[in-house]
Amino acid sequence: MKPQKIRLNRAEKTLQLLFADGEFNLPAEYLRVYSPSAEVRGHGNSPALLVDGKIHVGIDRVEAAGRYGLKIDFDDGHDTGIYTWEYLRELAEKYTINWEAYLERLRAAGKGRDPDESVVKFIG
């Protein structure tokens, strides 16, 4: 189901989607790390890429991809992958679960959201 309204808020780095039954504000960082691109999701049988260091990412442009979704251009240069209406709705509905899973994957990999910070592990 296509949203009734789509609004890019560059200052807040969010994409607002208004559906008949609810409104969702999706952060640019969330959309970037859950990109539907082959680069992020993996090619063929290869595993999905853990995208880190994107806390400051914004959205430069949003445009229609036919009648079935959106193409989102991020300010870090990433601009591949089509966000179908179904995938955007799924991302919106599962935001909390997906975000917590992403943060756990970052912790497990010793990575972070901020590209200017490094995780230090103490041995001993």
Please supply descriptive tags for the structure shown above.
single chain, 124 residues, alpha+beta, three-stranded antiparallel β-sheet, 4 helices, 6 strands, globular
Describe it.
- Helix content is 27%, strand content 27%.
- It has helices at residues 28-33, 38-41, 85-93, 95-109, and strands at residues 5-9, 14-19, 22-27, 59-65, 69-74, 82-84.
- The strands form 2 sheets. A 3-stranded antiparallel beta sheet has the order 1-2-3. It has a 3-stranded antiparallel beta sheet with strand order 4-5-6.
Low-confidence stretches: none
- What percentage of amino acids are in beta strands? 25-35%
Mean pLDDT: 92
Shape: globular
Helix amount: 25-40%
Number of strand segments = 6
Biggest sheet: strands, sense, closure?
3 strands, antiparallel
Number of helical elements: 4
Taking Cα atoms only, what radius of gyration do you get, to the nearest Å?
Answer: 15 Å
Kindly, what is the distance between the CA atoms of the first and last residues, rounded to a whole number of angstroms? 54 Å
Which class of secondary structure composition applies to the elements?
A: alpha+beta
Question: Strand sequence of the main sheet, in spatial order?
Answer: 1-2-3
In brief, what are we looking at here?
The protein has 124 residues and is α+β, with helices and mostly antiparallel strands.
Topology:
Blueprint: E1 5-9, E2 14-19, E3 22-27, H1 28-33, H2 38-41, E4 59-65, E5 69-74, E6 82-84, H3 85-93, H4 95-109
Antiparallel strand pairs: 1-2, 2-3, 4-5, 5-6
